# Entry
Amino acid sequence: MLEETISIISINQLKDNYCYLIRNNNSVIILDPSESEPIIEFIKKNNLIISAILITHHHNDHTAGIKNILNYNKVPVYSPNKNIIGTSSLVKDGDILNFGFINFKIFETPGHTLDHVVYYNQKNNILFSADLIFRLGCGRIFEGTYKQMYNSLMKLNNLSNETKVYCGHEYTISNLNFLLSIFPDQPDLLLEKINIEQQILNTGTSVPFNLGKEKTLNPFLSSNSKYYQYIKNQRNLNDFEFFAYVRDLKNSH
# Structure
């Protein structure tokens, strides 16, 4: 469970992006800001102090808000790419960032981009996955290879099943509809559809989501469910080939 003094606030950005504020009392860490105005407005309204900005990769929809936030409050910017505006500290695989009230371990997760990283807090079971994994989906492969993306996703299987995942976009309904179009009789997906619709009705978002459940439902992360094993064996595919097969279908969907 999250410590009582920590809360995660999601700020809607652009069409379907999420920026996250990790809050402890009056201190916040900002992750992947693309639109500065609603972030600064929230910070002013709640009399918060920015401790740092964390960036997962160089795409503009995760970085465009940095400049204005730094104009408002000059703070350290941690990113995996020196070319990202404002970067004051580069992060790499295995690094630990300690902010006192929370720390993050860095995992390099190339595939979507070559510089992509995720931020993981073991104590509170929190993962900020950006465009590596979405609920029932994964990021499109723009710069890396299928193998890089697959290997990056496999790193998540070593994390606790209790991990709460905060991803970079609200793509869940689209991902669900895609999976049901190619795996229409997958009973666990049909059940999850009910859970997702109820969560969105109650909270307005499908995030965060449980990593343990993704390990059984998300075919990009794992093909361990009996249903996916059946499809995989029918087509004589190994785990990586199954990932590539589903990713190719999603690309053309």
